[in-house]
Fold this sequence. Notes:
Two copies of one chain form a homodimer. Chain A is about 45% helix and about 15% strand. The radius of gyration of chain A is 20 Å and the shape is globular. In chain A, helix 2 links the parallel strand 2 and strand 3. In chain A, the strands form two sheets. In chain A, strands 4-3-2-1-5-6-7 form a seven-stranded parallel β-sheet, with helices on both faces. Chain A is built from 16 helices and eleven strands. The longest helix of chain A has 19 residues. By secondary structure, chain A is an alpha/beta fold. Chains A and B meet through strand 10, strand 11, helix 11 and helix 12 of A and strand 10, strand 11, helix 11 and helix 12 of B. Strand 11 of chain A pairs antiparallel with strand 11 of chain B.
Amino acid sequence: MIGVAVLGSTGSVGTNTLRVLARHRDRFRVVALTAYDSADLLKRQAREAGAAFVGLVQGTGVAGTGMGEGCLVEAATHADVKIVVNAIVGAAGLPATLAALRAGKRVALANKETLVMAGDLVLEAARRGGGEIVPIDSEHSAVLQCVTGARAGTLRRLILTASGGPFRDWPAERLAGATVKEALNHPTWRMGPKITLDSATLVNKALEVIEGHFLFGLGYEAIDVVVHPQSIVHGLAEFTDGSVLAQVGFPTMELPILYALTHPERLPDDGTRRFDPVAAGPLTFEPLRRDAFPAFGLGVNAGCNGGTAPAVFNAANEVAVEACLAGRLAFGRIPDVIARVLEAHDVQPAGDLAVVLAADRWARERAEAACS
Amino acid sequence: MIGVAVLGSTGSVGTNTLRVLARHRDRFRVVALTAYDSADLLKRQAREAGAAFVGLVQGTGVAGTGMGEGCLVEAATHADVKIVVNAIVGAAGLPATLAALRAGKRVALANKETLVMAGDLVLEAARRGGGEIVPIDSEHSAVLQCVTGARAGTLRRLILTASGGPFRDWPAERLAGATVKEALNHPTWRMGPKITLDSATLVNKALEVIEGHFLFGLGYEAIDVVVHPQSIVHGLAEFTDGSVLAQVGFPTMELPILYALTHPERLPDDGTRRFDPVAAGPLTFEPLRRDAFPAFGLGVNAGCNGGTAPAVFNAANEVAVEACLAGRLAFGRIPDVIARVLEAHDVQPAGDLAVVLAADRWARERAEAACS
């Protein structure tokens, strides 16, 4: 029995994870669950899964609970846990990722922001502690599945697909007036509000490019993005001989979650809709409109600049998204906020966590100011 | 340096193979070449590649040549050869495949007919002799690339793609009057005349289903075919967890040939067009019209029946195709000829080669009679 901690269990990836785990109780045991402030749902989940440890970051009302931010690290380093599913949204997931990796756990990572903020530090923690990172993001799971079994050094290029979000074909001038409500209406994926907004600005895709750089060790020139509105081809891997493998399927998070738990093995599972290319309909691909979605280029540039730049990009975006969801910032202004913070930032090498966290704090303050 | 024999070097797969080998002279050495009767081209190829052994099945005029059918086995078992590229068309390739496998060689197999005729015997020869079969067919190469590195027993289903051939969308009544010239005009692949006709009747796809059964050890109920007119997705593998991998790319035989030479490794190669999903255009998938292409179902049924049935299906088809190319049989009558021969056949277990060859001879005689 493999012990699993699910951080962020009440969110979209968290509930999908519990559904997958419920189908495989013979193999996995839910040891720890944490949530931000959804106490009622967390209590119900803990009862159903029989979790030994329950953590609530904000609020009260869950008996026998770890409280506050510290409960995340507590859950992530629990002695009975082998796999930590990190489904926390945003930078808040970083300490738990680092702690789990240092403790030699596998981190099934949906919290791409932590890898973006501090990729080198996260990889180093894994190396030192004997932990490993397995992506849950469907695009990176796709690539991982394509390269599993391939010889080291034979991966030449990644192609990450992007649905293009709800504004894929909107003219730039119309985009300027897009509302949050329109942005939250994703065409192919049902996800939490933060990642859905990130998909509408294509910030999410920039974060994934940076994530791909760290996960697969490729330079940014070897990571392409192509818009694929149907979200059927999740990611492609080009090898040194020119051959390209892809992972395909109807959109579901359950499959990449299951794979992150079992990689490099696979478990028999009938819980997801069987793929049928005919029912999938025509698959189309188009270039990403960088002009219409300037936040994408800002993110990729931040990745290329390295050091603290990706952390600053991420922090500025988190603040802008929060302001946007709270009605304090127009959707169309998110890229401006990010751009202004990045312009003002003096990039530092991200050699230790204090530098990264300082850059993150600095960027949040700047972004808050830029939002008002 | 890995010694390579190319059987059928003057045909379509053969010339593609020599092009690939010419790019990798540091790794591969052409030891032996054979052709059916194209003496001039064979001589030129042998000179350019510096082949030590040259074999011509039919005709004269090549100095220092092995002559007659025996030259195929001679080339396939040459002491300096490690990989035999079997690009012979039809049943004539069987003895060389068996001999090479018994001698412990890798057979890079474009000659799917031999696996269809005598799949169990071919697999047994490989087991006993320590040889191995690696497919060159783009569909099977795709699947092999998808499953390389996967744990045994995790492949659940194959999906082979079919371009649908030149008559993909022809109504059945129009198909009855299709000419050989029209059948030879394949929409996406440039190939030799036999396989091109087989693609027009979809016999080729039935042969590939049978080939897939033997190569990947799946039952026929686990092998699906889907029509994909663009020939970009070459084959798909569904795993036990429901995940599906695919190999994709612009149509070229050079890539599967290179992979058959290097599997499970890959060699850096820039000789093929880099894949670009946008340039590939929309990818569409549709069900195979079994009613319009009855030869497909005949072949799959023969595969399910097993024993000598696939050999009889193959032999009847070879005779019908030859008659068709010679102008002795209307294109539309190929399925009738195959059906009549299969109906008259009393299926035997294919436990030894003599039984298979007898069934093959019997079917050829029957088919000749049915063609006239």
